[in-house]
Amino acid sequence: MRNWAAAIIIIPLAFSALRAEPQKNISAYTVGMVYVKPGQFIMGSDESFSFEGPKRVEFTRGFYIDIYEVSNAEYKIFIDATGKEPPAHWNKGNYPAGAGNKPVTMVSYYEALAFAKWAGKRLPTEIEWEKAARGTSARIFPWGNEWKSGAANIRPLIGFSRLKNAGSLPEGRSPYGAMDMAGNVWEWTTVWFEPYPGSLDINPSYGMKYKVIRGGSYRSTRSMTHTFTREVFEPALSDEDIGFRCVKDY
Question: What contacts 75, CB < 8 A, 6 or more positions away?
Fold first, then answer.
């Protein structure tokens, strides 16, 4: 369940700047992915919720990450090849007409995990996801530190938004070239919701209860699309605005 915010003690508690980074050439086996170089980056915030800090330096090895969230058309290939159950809103094993390039949703963490394994990939850790979205200059949004209209598919001030085709808003690309890391759909990570290293935060939701999801969705407000924003969801459940993307080791 995602109405966990009421149960969480929200103690506001920080960060910085902008730089494009080079990408590595990718092989045929990693077509549709971009390379995230090994090295350090700044993760977390000291100016947000207590469970999103402290801000600190983390390190990742080099890895590839999908440019786009996994689409309905891609997930359909997986369903047909494995005989797995399709998402609940599909009709007779088929996604809605015209929705092939939209991110697949209504997929639990375990179903996303199965897809990733079948595809020869895996799901990202929370550290990997944030680095791919944020780069090495502590960006607040994937494109920089200031909000940019038209860069993310989120809930407008008036009315509602809808799920868009993956990659519809190229202005929102991350420093490495990954699309839709702010808005469109939340994305599963492998991490259980736990306090960060060095955190003194106490939270009844910590433990092996919820998986961390990242990135915000078309139903989210602007503040939920920060590169350091953490949300949680029960791994056995699914929702209409939660999808995923995969990573692969270098």
Answer: 87, 95, 104, 107, 115
Instruction: Using alpha carbons, list the distances in angstroms from residue 192 to 99, 197, 234.
Output: 31, 14, 10
- Print the SS3 string covering the chain: CCCHHHHCCCCCCCCCCCCCCCCCCCCHHHCCEEEECCEEEEECCCCCCHHHCCCEEEEECCEEEECCCCEHHHHHHHHHHHCCCCCCCCECCECCCCCCCCECCCCCHHHHHHHHHHCCCECCCHHHHHHHHHCCCCCCECCECCCCCCCCECCCCCCCCCCCCCCCCHHHCCCCCCCCCCECCEEEEEEECCCCCCCCCCCCCCCCCCEEEECCCCCCCHHHHCCCCCEEECCCCCCCCEECCCEEEC
Specify the CATH number of the domain 1-250: 3.90.1580.10
The residue ranges of every structural domain in the chain are 1-250
- CA-CA-CA-CA dihedral for 3, 181, 32, 111, to nearest 10: -10
What are all long-range contacts of 26-29, with beta carbons under 8 Å and residues at least 24 apart?
Answer: 26/64, 29/120
Q: Which residues of the chain have pLDDT under 70?
A: 1-29
| pLDDT, tens only, 127-172 | 999 999 999 999 999 999 999 999 999 999 888 899 999 999 999 9
